[in-house]
Amino acid sequence: MPTRVEQTPTMQDAPLVVVPLAHKAAYLERYAESDKGWQDRAESRWPAPYWFIETGMATLLMLLTAVDEGSAPASSGSCRASRPAAAECTRRRAAAR
């Protein structure tokens, strides 16, 4: 698996690169507005981190739209060693080298 852009020249030629980012503070602020029914920004109200979930869904929608338009989209991610699943991902990548 390539780990550097130099090893994947097709990514260098991509007409568009989208980097979706979740912004927890903006999300909590939006849902604290008067039309949403809550006045505080308490993260404890959320049973799951929906700022990540909605960012993921938006990413999926962009990928599916690109396919519908005849493009060949690519998706990649990163591992965070602080999470058990990410640690396993990092271990597997290291073992594949």
The portion of residues forming beta strands comes to under 5%
Q: How many H/I helices?
A: 4
Backbone structural class: mainly alpha
**Shape from CA axes?**
flat
Biggest sheet architecture: none
Taking all Cα atoms into account, the compactness measure Rg is 18 Å
Overall residue-averaged pLDDT value? 77
Give structural attributes.
97 residues, mainly alpha, 4 helices
Q: Can you give a write-up of this model?
A:
The chain has 97 residues and is mainly alpha-helical. It contains four helices and no strands. 1% of the residues are buried.
Q: What topology emerges from the helices and strands here?
A:
Layout: H1 9-12, H2 24-30, H3 50-68, H4 84-96
What would you say about this model in short?
Helices cover 44% and strands 0% of the residues.
